[in-house]
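Final report, section 2: Outcomes. Of the targets proposed, homogentisate 1,2-dioxygenase is the one most frequently requested by collaborating groups, and we therefore present its record in full.
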Amino acid sequence: MRLFMAVNSVTYDHPDPSIGTVLSSYTSTPGLANVDFVIFPPRWLPAEGTFRPPWFHRNCMSEFMGLLTGSYDAKPDSFVPGASSIHNRYIPHGPDAAAVETGTERDTSNPERWGPT
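The predicted structure is given below as tokens.
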């Protein structure tokens, strides 16, 4: 997994996390997966004028997340390696207050190297 090539935005906005999908188990319904495995390897975040941490969102399927190494940019102080969380379908979730404050005050005119997460 350390060799997975990260894909990202080079202009503006935070791309959909599905860009990190490395494995999907499909169902007979187009666009609906049993499970998707997503990784976020070390990467550059060059997008300008945008909120770089993961944003508040809802998913059409449940989201289980675990952190193996590094830190998680949406909850850097509370989500440590070995931690996991689950968000059921359509439940809003996103970064903690500290990540929102840091993300909105950050100078985004320069690229940042993030990872490993």
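The chain has a mean pLDDT of 85.
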